[in-house]
Design goal:
By secondary structure, the protein is mostly beta strands. It contains no helices and 17 strands. The chain has strands at about 40-45, 55-60, 60, 75-80, 80-90, 100-105, 110-115, 120-125, 140-145, 155, 165-170, 175, 180, 185-190, 195-205, 210-215, 230-235. The radius of gyration is 19 Å and the shape is globular.
Length: about 240
């Protein structure tokens, strides 16, 4: 049986986040047992293409020191197990755009995506799990479709070994992780009828690493908006 990867992943810190693990009292004697604090882990990604910079608040406490802008990714940070209520506001404002409570389980990892257009802004949480890669020279990859006006899409690799990598993916869906050869790829985003929406060149995938490909942006941006549909690579581990 393949072992789970993400239950024991080494986590990257998000400097601006407050780590919500209580500090052990210095009064503990050296012979006292050290209590184990139940801990969960989550990352944030801003994928709302017409929403400006955000502040992220946890139970009223702001977590970021600078604006969390479109396309920003936090990496994983630790949170208390149980109900965590997050509020998302424009940077420097107290006006809430969205408030959501997520229940985190001990030792589990989650990705929280801020999605849709500003008028319909929402959040999507994905539980992050994967199995160990089958051999060296492989990378793990998944797809998250966050383009609010895009139809069902297909992702193809290009070149001499061109193939369909992810097929028939709808807005607000995420795939499981799958294996690819560690290499450099160019991708085409196409509709189900074969219309090419975008080409993204020279994405590198290293052996033993895990990645999320985010389809983001508008097929037809509103006036004054330049966030056209593309792929963004996020490193999970």
């Amino acid at each position: 049986m393949k072992k789970s990867l993400f239950e024991s992943v080494k986590l990257k810190s998000w400097i601006a986040l407050i780590v919500l693990i209580p500090i052990l009292s210095s009064c503990l004697k050296s012979s006292d047992p050290v209590p184990v604090t139940p801990t969960s882990y989550a990352s944030f990604y801003h994928g709302s293409p017409d929403t400006g910079g955000l502040d992220i608040l946890l139970d009223g406490t702001k977590l970021n020191s600078t604006a969390f802008a479109y396309g920003n990714y936090s990496g994983y940070a630790s949170f208390e197990v149980g109900a965590n209520t997050f509020r998302f506001t424009p940077t420097g404002s107290t006006t809430s755009l969205k408030e959501t409570t997520f229940n985190f389980e001990n030792g589990k990892l989650y990705s929280i995506f801020i999605i849709n257009n500003l008028a319909n802004i929402e959040t999507m949480m994905v539980r992050d799990t994967a199995t160990a890669l089958s051999s060296s020279g492989k990378a793990g990859i998944r797809l998250v479709h966050l383009s609010p006006d895009a139809p069902e899409i297909n992702i193809y690799t290009t070149g001499s070994n061109a193939k369909l990598l992810f097929g028939s993916r709808q807005f607000k869906t995420a795939t499981d992780f799958t294996e690819i050869d560690a290499n450099v790829y160019t991708f085409d985003i196409k509709t189900s009828d074969g219309t090419k929406l975008a080409t993204v060149e020279n994405m590198s995938f290293a052996s033993g690493r895990y990645y999320t490909l985010v389809v983001r942006g508008f097929v037809t941006p509103p006036s004054g908006n330049t966030n056209t549909i593309t792929l963004q690579q996020l490193v999970n581990q």
